[in-house]
Design a protein that fits this description.
Largest interface: A-B, 42 and 45 residues
Helix content of chain B: 10-25%
Strand content of chain B: 25-35%
Bound molecules: flavin-adenine dinucleotide, iron/sulfur cluster
Order of helices and strands of chain A: EHEHEEEEEEHEHEHEEEEEEHEEEHHH
Number of helices of chain B: 5
Number of strands of chain B: 9
Order of helices and strands of chain B: HHHEHEEHEEEEEE
Helix content of chain A: 25-40%
Oligomer: heterodimer
Distance between the termini of chain B: 29 Å
Distance between the termini of chain A: 33 Å
Structural class of chain A: alpha/beta
Chain lengths: ~375, ~180
């Protein structure tokens, strides 16, 4: 059996940051990702990030991704791409399938799970027609593959993902016909909605998509207004001439590996559903397994990077790579930057939800 | 069609801040008509954790402060109208304005991340916060420099009558 000190699963912003931190501390790290390119969601984020200078605010996600990869190369971190982690046994053994053909088991002293999240779907008549897709999928198509999924878009969901992807679809040359939001108020940052609105895109709050029509692809969509009990109001249907319907209805942490390994679950609706319990150091109920990023509760790339640093540092410390003082200084700095991101009217709820997880007594 | 009533519903309903919301926010200040230089105008009224506007300004004219969710506020005394913050703001929430830079014409310099870019001298359609056409404008400069990292800043003149209402221009059709 192969052996490594730290195996990081998922090479998104969280996994990359965790791997870098652990390697910097001196640990031998193996980073695995099922994709043929590392970076997770980062390389789709062509917009400038929020935050402060320490969070690399004002830098585009894609450029942050490139910087992280260059650092990983400098530190000589071992990376396996096209490598899917399929199971964790005995709290230390990671079963990995490489290139869809070779099965390898790696014994790790510490495992850091940074598998991210999956997009939620919304079901409605016609939802299986070609042209109905996740907003993240549309973003992958335009920003990674440079293919416009359609010309006339309906966006369902007004959180930051829905709004940012709407903006990027406009940049890619599509027409966004409408953004519908089931809640009575828009979800995403006002500065994002404002730039989409001034491009002429109408927002419909208290509205949802009722039906997609078409024979072999989406040819139109019906939207409808919702009452205060979120029930469709008859007579308020509106037909929109669209060929693509993007769903941005939230993300769910990708937790299967954690739960199959036996990590204790906890329900946190605000952070996307079931998440593995973890402590402040990002350790799960299984002391050899750590978490970072969306798997520990859906947030954003900037928080994922801080959590990655915290998890990587904690794992290295637990292996004896850094002394207590160095650990405390590095960890506290990352945590402080993290708390700054979890502040204000948007962040405070996440901060409370995270505190509830860490504060939850186990057993 | 949108009515005035829709406009007044505000940021969390229409997607765009209403004038009432802007006027009630300490962040938004329209440069006074008598001011001679361009000045930065910020429309970022929610207190998001963010401060590149503050850190990018070479003369310290924008203050967010230690709490990064504070609203950014411009000090017109210090602002030179250089435009660096316009491209640095990830929210594309800052533009420069000046009333009557030339007879009956105001000046705006706004961030623009769409292609194609307008050529200098072109007549473009100016829009309000809702994307509605307001008036024509004339492109004076199209600034695209490396440190602005692919955010172009377009400088346009437009009639004084729409000094406050205009915030950007319509996207141009692909050519
Ligand atoms: C459409 C969209 C737009 C977004 N826009 C922004 C934004 O503008 N700003 C922002 O800050 N955040 C944004 N986010 C959120 C941000 O992308 C995520 O919070 C962040 O990427 C989470 O990082 P992560 O490393 O936890 O997960 P990810 O980036 O999702 O990376 C996880 C990686 O793990 C891999 N993986 C999963 N399971 C396995 C396995 N079993 N074996 C091997 N590999 C595996 C995945 O393929 C992936 O590469 C957006 C998210 C989406 C979906
Ligand atoms: S325009 Fe220049 S001087 Fe004025 S606030 Fe912006 S960066 Fe500072
Ligand atoms: S940089 Fe832009 S989005 Fe960020 S706080 Fe300043 S004005 Fe708001």
């Amino acid at each position: 059996m192969e052996e490594r000190e730290v195996v990081v699963i998922g090479a998104g912003p969280a996994g990359l940051s965790a791997a870098l931190e652990a390697a910097r501390a001196g640990a031998h790290v193996l980073l695995v990702d099922e994709n043929s390119k590392p970076g997770g969601q980062l390389f789709k984020q062509i917009h400038k990030f929020f935050g402060s200078h320490e969070h690399r605010a004002g830098v585009r996600g894609i450029d942050i991704g490139t910087q992280l990869l260059e650092e990983a190369e400098r530190l000589d971190i071992e990376v396996w791409l096209d490598a899917e982690a399929c199971g964790i046994f005995n709290t230390t053994d990671v079963w990995i399938v490489r290139n869809k053909e070779k099965s390898v088991t790696v014994r790790a002293k510490r495992i850091i799970l940074a598998t991210g999240a999956v997009e939620n779907s919304v079901n409605f008549p016609g939802w299986s027609l070609p042209g109905v897709m996740g907003a993240g999928a549309a973003q992958t198509m335009i920003n990674l593959h440079r293919v416009l999924p359609g010309q006339k878009i309906l966006m369902v969901g007004s959180g930051n993902v829905g709004i940012i992807v709407s903006y990027q679809l406009l940049q890619a040359g599509a027409d966004v016909k409408a953004v519908v939001e089931a809640a009575p108020r828009l979800g995403g940052y006002g500065v994002h909605t404002a730039k989409v609105r001034r491009a002429g895109v109408p927002f419909y709050t208290s509205h949802t998509v009722l039906e997609a029509r078409g024979t072999d692809h989406v040819e139109s969509a019906t939207i409808v207004q919702l009452d205060d009990k979120w029930k469709p109001i008859p007579g308020t249907e509106k037909e929109l001439d669209v060929d693509t319907i993007c769903i941005a209805a939230g993300l769910t942490p990708l937790v299967e590996l954690a739960f199959a390994a036996g990590c204790e679950p906890l329900y946190s609706p605000l952070l996307g559903g079931m998440v593995p319990w973890h402590d402040r150091s990002m350790a799960t109920s299984i002391p050899t397994i750590y978490l970072a990023g969306d798997i520990s509760g859906v947030e954003e790339a900037s928080t994922a990077m801080e959590e990655g640093r915290m998890a990587g540092l904690s794992a290295a410390y637990s292996l004896g790579y850094v002394d207590r003082e160095t650990y405390a200084v590095g960890f506290d700095a990352a945590e402080k930057r993290m708390l700054a991101l979890r502040s204000g009217m948007f962040g405070q709820k996440r901060r409370d939800a995270k505190a509830a997880i860490v504060g939850h007594s186990r057993g | 069609m949108e009515t005035k009533d829709t406009y007044e519903k505000g940021l969390k309903i229409t997607g765009a801040p209403s004038l009432d919301e802007l006027h009630a926010s300490p962040c938004y200040q329209l440069p006074p008509k008598e001011r001679r230089a361009l000045a930065a105008v910020i429309e970022c009224i929610e207190g998001i954790p963010c401060n590149p506007c503050e850190t990018s300004c070479p003369v310290g004219a924008i203050t967010v402060g230690d709490e990064i969710t504070n609203l950014p506020v411009v000090d017109f005394e210090k602002c030179t109208g250089c435009g660096i913050c316009v491209a640095a703001c990830p929210g594309l929430a800052i533009y420069l304005k000046k009333y009557e830079f030339k007879e009956n014409l105001s000046y705006i310099a706004f961030p623009f991340e769409y292609l194609p870019l307008p050529p200098e001298g072109a007549t473009v359609q100016m829009v309000d916060r809702y994307g509605e056409y307001v008036c024509d404008g004339t492109v004076l400069r199209v600034v695209k420099i490396k440190r602005m990292d692919r955010t172009t800043v377009v400088h346009v003149s437009y009639p004084n009558d729409y000094y406050e209402r205009v915030v950007n221009m319509k996207r141009l059709p692909a050519n």
